[in-house]
Amino acid sequence: MNKILKDLILGIIASLIASLIWNYVTISLQIKAFSRIEQFLEMINAYQFIGYWFSFLVLMVIVRHFIRNRIDKLQEPFPMVFSIPYSHDFKGEVKYEGFLWKVKGDIKSSLLRRDIKELTNEEVAISSVDGPYCIYDYRKMKEQRTYFGLYKYTCTKCSYKRKLLKNRWTLECELTDELESEQRMKNTNILISKV
After folding, report:
1. Does pTM top 0.85 for this prediction?
2. Residue 58 forms beta bridges with which residues?
């Protein structure tokens, strides 16, 4: 879609420039030459269709700029330092926002490794989130940016598509926060019920 819109806009701009030059040449041959700016403005006024198309294209570029900036402000900032943990207490797969994610983390107590579905009352620290993967054939999703700034995720094999306002890093951060908050809520509910 992004390439189609670019080609369309370039085609329209090229045709407008060509028609403006053609009109300028034919009228300048009739008038002999534009000696003043007023004569050039009269020609533009006579051919208002070109002005309308040009205004439309300028408006589209401005709207695209504002939409892309708004979407960029919704994203999580990238971290300056990455840490690589050596081992994980648990690992598992989670479905989030229509994708599958591989999650690895550590339990903040002294329990051994287990699956993420077995965690009940422990507080966790998610250390690694990998994805997104296709929900149908478990392939890594290809991330692209559309013309207006949305993020388009596509499976290369089955053509599963999904458009979101968030990039991969923002989805990873939200998933990490979501999983950790679920575990904190489970701990809070258990502590409240014991008191």
Report:
1. no
2. none
